[in-house]
Amino acid sequence: MTPHATGGTVDLHCHLLPGIDDGARDLPDAVEMARQAEADGIAAICATPHIRADHAVRIEELPARRAELGAALLEAGCSTRVLPGGEVAADMLDALDGPDLASVTLGGSGTWILLEPAPGPLDERLDAAVDALRVRGFRALLAHPERHPAPDIVDRLRRLIAHGALVQVTAGYFTDESTRPAMLTLARAGVVHVLGSDAHSSRAGRRVELAPALQMLATTEPVAGHLEWVAHTAPRGIVCGQDVVSPFPSADD
């Protein structure tokens, strides 16, 4: 499942579905979030509600909820598409069978899971979750690792990438002066692959936009040399279930 607009980007992490987790409050809020995305040039959004113990999200209800929102966007004249997805907590994997996991893969393609690390610094639990997904036939896209800082974060991310994971970071953190230095450190280390807005509402918090962060990355190596891959090739490959591989050299190369 791919976005209609060939020139648009894909937001791989957004809490767009209304009234289901800590995301959009109601349908008008969700429509306004999609309008923000459209203004930013985002052609499609993976709606990624929390799949974790503290949110009573019913996976079997997600298709109908996406359809309801899609109809509202069509009525509102908003062209941004809503794609399947979910933000799956690492400690929930044992509770989800194969069909449940497949239904919350990004784009609904059956391959890529947006994987939320456990609270605190990244540790062996995330390594185990990435490996467990691979054994079950899935690939892991790590959600916002910048929220789990530690002195060894780059080394840990490189090991996870070597095991087949890719890394999604939060676009808005590149434009926030307080978080920008840490984000640029990750980008310069070659452990930033794709962006997500991780937006939760049009009324507060982060906007549904990727373009300002991409503009900053356009002058940040090694990402700048692969900006088309980061902005378009990788996100589209992920929602299509392709075997997407990082173009950035590892520390050993």
Could you give a quick summary of the protein structure above?
36% of the residues lie in helices and 15% in strands. It has nine helices and nine strands. The chain has helices spanning 27-40, 62-76, 98-103, 124-135, 153-162, 172-175, 180-188, 211-217, 227-239, and strands spanning 9-14, 42-47, 50-51, 81-83, 87-89, 112-116, 139-143, 166-170, 194-196.
The helix/strand order is EHEEHEEHEHEHEHHEHH
Query: Major sheet: order of its strands?
Result: 3-5-6-7-8-9
Which blocks of ≥5 consecutive residues have pLDDT under 50? 1-6
CATH architecture: Alpha-Beta Barrel
Strand content: 15-25%
User: What is the 3D shape?
Assistant: globular
What is the CATH homology-level superfamily? Answer: Metal-dependent hydrolases
Derived structural class: alpha/beta
Radius of gyration: 17 Å
Query: What is the class in the CATH system?
Result: Alpha Beta
From the 3D structure, determine the CATH topology.
Answer: TIM Barrel
Question: Largest sheet, if any?
Answer: 6 strands, parallel
State the end-to-end CA separation. Answer: 34 Å
Number of domains: 1
How would you describe this structure to a colleague?
With 253 residues, this protein is of the alpha/beta class. It has a single domain (9-239), classed as Metal-dependent hydrolases (TIM Barrel), CATH 3.20.20.140. It has nine helices and nine strands. The strands form two sheets. It has a six-stranded parallel sheet, with helices on both faces. The chain has a three-stranded parallel sheet with strand order 1-2-4.
